[in-house]
Amino acid sequence: MPQRLREPNNPMPKEWLAKDHSQQYIADYKPFNFVDGEGVRCSLYVSGCLFNCPGCYNKAAQNFHYGTPYTQELEDQIIEDLGHDYVQGLTLLGGEPFLNTQVCLKLIKRVRQEFGHQKDIWSWSGYTWEELLQDSADKLEMLSLIDILVDGRFLLAKKDLTLQFRGSSNQRIIDVPKSLANGEVVIWDKLVH
Ligand code: SF4
């Protein structure tokens, strides 16, 4: 009999909360890269994710204790790196950024305080747009402060390595401010494929 592919976990709204899971650990920080969104970016990989997608691109970072604690020194370094004219913005990945809102909200607010909207903020999430809208206040606050959300689990059955900034075809690159203003998902207008 053919083996059925295991599905990622599917939480109920507000079932998983950052306050119950996040250890405020960082799996990696990659300044000045070209792969995590548009332009030159500084990328923070937070630790911990509960979706457990088969084929996850960063399985080690599913562990909330993986890596090292987020520190003020690292935050200061990120702000300094973002200050270069050639850097377009900050990217949050994981792990699951929306299960590490203590770290992500603090950093996002600092970026807005230092740079206003001169730098853009992208975040990846295993949650879909629709799921985030039904979830906890910290997730909604984070959503309201970012520019681009790449949403949804990685699905092996829909894997497509030709896609721009996504691993599977169910995932979307969403313009967050326009989507919130319109009350429906608006796809990033620079989407190529
Ligand atoms: S949502 Fe992303 S980080 Fe989490 S298990 Fe799936 S692929 Fe891995």
UniProtKB/TrEMBL annotation:
SUPFAM superfamilies named in the record: Radical SAM enzymes
Top EC category: oxidoreductase
Chain ranges passing through the membrane: none
Family matches, as Gene3D superfamilies: Aldolase class I
Keywords: 4Fe-4S, Iron, Iron-sulfur, Metal-binding, Oxidoreductase, S-adenosyl-L-methionine
GO MF, any single term: ribonucleoside-diphosphate reductase activity, thioredoxin disulfide as acceptor
Family: Belongs to the organic radical-activating enzymes family.
PANTHER family, per the entry: ANAEROBIC RIBONUCLEOSIDE-TRIPHOSPHATE REDUCTASE-ACTIVATING PROTEIN, PYRUVATE FORMATE-LYASE-ACTIVATING ENZYME
Stored NCBIfam families: NrdG
Protein name in UniProt: Anaerobic ribonucleoside-triphosphate reductase-activating protein
Species of origin: Limosilactobacillus fermentum 3872
